[in-house]
Amino acid sequence: MTAALGKDLVGLERLSPDQIRLILDTAEPFKEVSERPIKKVPALRGKTIVNLFFEASTRTRISFEFAEKRLSADTVNVAASGSAVQKGETLVDTARNLEAMRIDMVVIRHPSSGAAEFLGNRIRSNVVSAGDGKHEHPTQALLDLLTIRDKHGKIAGLRVCLVGDVLHSRVARSNIWGLSKLGAEVGVCGPDTLMPRGIEDLGVCRFRRIEEAIEWADVLNVLRLQLERMEMGFIPSVREYYRVFGVTLERLEKASRPLTIMHPGPMNRGVEIDSRVADGPHSVILDQVTNGVAVRMAVLYLLAGGRPELADAAKRGGTE
Amino acid sequence: MSRPDRTIILDARALSRALQRMAVEVLELAHGTDRLVLIGIQRRGVELADRIARLIEKDAAVVPRGALDITLYRDDLETVGPKPVIGETRIPGDLAGKHVVIVDDVLYTGRTVRAALDELADFGRPERISLCVLVDRGGRELPIQPDIVGTKVKVSDGERVDVLVEELDGRDEVDLVRTR
Prior knowledge:
The complex is a heterodimer of chains A (about 325) and B (about 180).
Chain A lengths: L16 H17 L14 E6 L5 H12 L3 E6 L11 H10 L4 E6 L4 H6 L5 E7 L5 H15 L6 E5 L6 H12 L3 E5 L15 E3 L2 H7 L2 E4 L5 H4 L6 H8 L3 H5 L6 E3 L12 H4 L6 H19 L4 H7 L6
Parallel strand pairs in A: 1-2, 1-3, 3-4, 5-6, 5-8, 6-7, 8-9
Chain B lengths: L5 E5 L1 H18 L6 E6 L2 H14 L7 E4 L30 E9 L3 H11 L6 E9 L11 E5 L6 E6 L1 H4 L3 E6 L2
Parallel strand pairs in B: 2-3, 2-4, 4-5, 5-6
Antiparallel strand pairs in B: 1-8, 7-8
Helix pairs in contact in B: 1-2
């Protein structure tokens, strides 16, 4: 009960293990809300949330929007294209103008690392990061953690390997923070060109061969290979990448035990992951998507409201 | 056992007798178990609903039971400091045509019951909803009255009612606690 989240959620780096557990535990009952005949609870009735997306996103934006609507919040979507941003308005000006219309929360996705925190420090509304640059994508990592916990019943002591483009991946960074805070062992595997220098300093094991990673891990979180990386010379070709680092059925069958397979989407079938693996019995990729809504509901619920001056006034006797 | 700031209202035997009587009254009120559904309010209401259901099941058919966490339907979410941990909500099947008996430990302002009624409405349209509480401590802020009451307690300012159940607290007891 003491692990409140504060005003914003911009990353997992600064959250305590207790705060992360609070979010995961709160997400648990929200899963059931999405199974109800009326998939809606009035918890955020009257709150206005703006989804401010400066980068294209389908899954994350829709997931946030479902989470908001299932909590009865009123939502507005603002995309960078077609907005005042294109006319040269700064991020803070955009947000201040929205605040002038009396909003309560901003969910922001932005191509610049640190944009969510920058904004959170300048406006009164709660700010939730939906991914900023190469920094963090906290709700994705939280849904990954929830999915791992569902599948294995625990996180501590598990070996989770992130496979692929760790260098450009905010999902990887948030996962490394979250997993290590909850006591998992974290591995990374991918081409040297797509590994940040000094990654071992974060306390992760570095695997140069996918076969070694598979032998070591309980869970593989296969990252999306952005195809433009090839044009930028990070990898020789997509076919070459699949041959060397692709998570294929043949490779997984050689492991001594079945591995849980995750992917944050959108998948490039036949590039980073074999279709037979993505659709196989140990894939929890669609569970991740389901859990995404519950985790985002939990985050929004925990951040919203909570005006301490009113809390004191409300504390008048009764266990009711 | 009882410290000066904690007075026992019901000990384990009295609580057991109260539940026994409440179970009989539930059966009478619902005219048997055909349409009866017991829904406990998290957390101690769930345990009490379970006890009442088991008492009824001793000489009648199985009683469907569920659990309701009303946190997300509270009218004071703005004012609760640290957000309460949300418990499980589990509704057994379709409520249409059923006689739902809501079970809770303490009835005070009535706001919890108001929230429970709103939440149940989102799960269907029971034919009837009744309210069964172990302790009615008065102090209503809404026009809500119980149908079945275990015991009534007069509670003064600076006092609180604590319901303890074996499953969660290690013993069955209802206490009047002086808080200042």
